[in-house]
Amino acid sequence: MTLDGPNESHTAQDSMHNPIPNSSVRYMRGQWVYSQGTPALNLFRIETGLLRLVKVTLKGRVLTVRHLLPGDYFGEEALGNCHHQYGVEALTRTLVVPLEPATLEVAQAAVILRNLSEQMSRAMQYGYHLQTGELKQRVVRYLLELADTPLGGEDGENLLFVKATHELIAEGTFSTRESVSKIITELREASFIESGYRQITLKNIDGLHQIIAQPKLDELQGSRGLQGVI
Fold this sequence. Notes:
CATH topology of the largest domain: Jelly Rolls
CATH superfamily of the largest domain: Jelly Rolls
Helix content: 25-40%
Strand content: 15-25%
CATH class of the largest domain: Mainly Beta
Structural class: alpha+beta
Largest sheet: 5 strands, mixed
Strand order of the largest sheet: 1-2-9-4-7
Number of domains: 2
Shape: elongated
Number of helices: 6
CATH architecture of the largest domain: Sandwich
Number of strands: 13
Radius of gyration: 20 Å
């Protein structure tokens, strides 16, 4: 089966409510594959692009839980006949394939479980990073992470850039847009980055890595201090 075949690829508008298993669905940036709290009827596999799992808090705040890369499976709530605990939003143009849980073969199920395990490891690492260091370190770490996804790229001067808004960065670092904007301004004034409309260019990669390395040094010094007390 050719995923991009003329009769096998559907738009999100046509298929988001009744996705056809094993037929690809195209989503544009900002469209939702499904919303939090809706019935989980299908598993999904991302073929191209970048998605994010988001959680909407009781106060209406949107938080990024994890990112989904090509080859990742999601919608695992369908395996337990549950409702979706998170929503899934397209961050770029994305191609997604719905899968019917009842038709999964043993070998395919093993691949899915292995991938979900890998995603859990990534999510745990992501959660750890959110609790390490100050907001500036979290913002820089998130920018470097996004640079290695379909949101990243290289400009004509071979500088890495990230296509992201301050709001997206705030949702990915459990912060606020205002706080992120302040950090972005500080980084720009220090010549670490250059920011424009929906794009941030990483001008000083070495300097950015030094910023995120600082918490590790602080932790080491704190550990030595505790040893001295003991």
